[in-house]
Amino acid sequence: MKTWLARWLSAYLILVGMLAHTVVLLGAWYVLREYQVTPRQAMVVGMERLGLDWPWLEDLLTPAPAYRDHVLDGRLRDSHPRILLPQLADWSGQGVPALMVEREAAYRTRGVEPLGGCPQSSLPGQAACYVITGDPASGEALLAAARRFSVTPPRASGDYGNLWELAFAYDFLHLYPGFGEADRSSIRTRIVEGLEQTLLLLDGPEASLWHGRATLAASAWLAAVVLEPDTPARLGLITRSQGHFLDVMQALALTEAWPEGYNYWIQNRAFLLALAGSAYLNGLLESRQRGRIRTALERTGFWHIYATRPDGSVEGFGDEGPRLDLKDETRRVIDLIAQATGSRTLATFSHYLGERHGPESYFRGYRWGFRLFNDPSLEPFGGEGLNAFQALPGAELFGRDALNLTYLRSGWTADATFISFRAGHSFTHHGHYDAGHFTLFKGAPLAVNASAYGAFFSPNRLHYGIRSVAKNTLLVLRPGERVRPQRRFTENIAAGGQRLVFPTGSALQNVGQWYTNLGDGLHLEGATLERFEHQPPAYTHLTADLTRAYNNPQYDAGGWGGKVERVQRMLFYLREQDRLLVHDQVLSRAPAYRQKWLLHTVNKPQVAEARVLRGEPDNGILESPGREALVSNPPGFLQVERILPADGVIRLVGGPDYRYYVEADGDDSDLDGKNMIEGAVDRPWFDNPLWRLEIQSATPRRAVEFLVVLSPRLGSPPQGRAAPLAASGGPLAGVKLEDEAVLFTTPESSELTPLLPGGIRRLWLVGLPPLARVALDAPGLTREVRASGGGVALLELDPLTSGRTVISWR
Prior knowledge:
32 strands; 22% strand; six-stranded antiparallel β-sheet; single chain; Beta-galactosidase, Chain A, domain 5; alpha+beta
């Protein structure tokens, strides 16, 4: 009887074990389906969700330590502090440090009211109080707070722990005379334990590179840099932490802006990366990577400046949130980078933020850091508002050959025209599928990003906000296209946009892995920026190949051979004319694949002869045969003029029931799409457009060429009109703008015979081979010039009289 009972219990336990294993595997399978993660990550998450504690399985899944062979770059400074203000090493630890006395005097001289004060409740705040005052009571309070501080274990996403706070306090505690060896050893032990936990996450695949991995690596380096490399074990921790941090900084150097968008950067990544970057520059001597770290920090700092619109808010481009207003978070990050790099330009931006937002330029809980982060010896440049940056170039490119994020402007005054352009690859699940997207601001948002980040898994985000249909780019509708990258996409919405790579989760671990998935694996490739040329004060020119962002013959996510063969976009901004010309060439795989040119606007554009195709005039889909549309968002106005396609039509889509409208089946011959409103939000930090303008050819065909002239103005609509140019053989990608003309060339041609009207004084040629020799032969006039390195040539015509004109180049 006992034997039978024992066998029964044994069988029961085996069955329970098998069921438990099955449940774990099912949980892992669910997580794999839910997010784009690795099997190990899915298994661990599945165990956590099921509340199972199997140490043997976790040991089995523990990753091998990364960067064991990494050679420490430089050597740690012998003295403390190493994270910030290493010049305090000579302070006795009693009385106000000389550096703080100097800073207070500089603040008074410049009329700056320092933020923050004492006492402070947070551990870093108490460290700041001690350094600022030199009060022994503050030092003792800091030590007591450090003794009772509890280190929160980090997670791969969401809560990354608070280890940096203890490391920050420990670094400054070395200055306090009452910091004895017993306390030193106790706190150091907790830092080491926290660092080991952080490295365990970094060694595995759980944390994604342009996401939580950046925060974890920064935290690890901040903990490592305050330790002494006096044992092989601690030296190993320091070295491995540096390896992880250097890879994250390589990622930052690659993009020079944050691919998740501004809000995720400034609220989740920026502070710790800037603080850890400061620790790298301050805490290491004889570092070979010093210059690279400094440049990455400075370039990222400059991105903040260039992304700031004339209205003082940031032009967002990913999953965004409220800190587009530049309050609370941005200034302390800029202060840290300015102090670490010695940049007066960034110090000027800090001053601008202080003037604009006052105390709200620092969140109240962070104001303890003002005197530690803000270096008053970096005197800001003179000038009112953003006009203080008038010495900077009017255009800048961030993340060349990677993110390809460009900003250009007519000037730095409040009435300037501001344009952004994105033409890069994919990096993270908080990025959008927006190759070729541009925005335009003058006095108010005129051509805007229609994404508004609400619920992460909502239909509005998955089926509209992250997609090309919400951007000012190009759609190619393929009837019946299948777009369901994973199970969260409960509906198949074929809206005509670019490939969705990892819309709900990513598991990239390092820059090398990102490169490996360009053209293979995940196929992270998007747009390639072929030309970027800024020639002040005349023009800025950009050319981007967008082909590989869409399903194409080289790679189609559904395996159907692609829907486009070539998609190219050119932007040509004439600063004196204050006009943006957008020229696109789209070659689809079949005539039935409809091409659309998109422009999102806050208010309904005005068009002539509009007829309602669906809905109502102020809430529906309308179509106009007209060539012009007027966008109004006072005090700004934008005239939109369709030059090509010559047989084109303009559609307006918008109003309460159509603002998120998508063609679900990839076919707009029957307007049976859906309004993806579920999960949509209107927030004051978004531009909240209600309408979009679509330009398309009147009849479907494989090859469509778009040429659109955008003329922004303040106070009243533009008065000038753009006129199409033609050649003896038919339509031409050219336009007359008062006494100037612009012609776009193609790589397949080497000669044009435009029918140029009289009165043209200047002729621009765009898209030429770099440094090509250009010759013009017209009645009574010959000219020969050399194109720029970006393929732009200017012919002065003095003025041109009517007649047959031949333009050739070689």
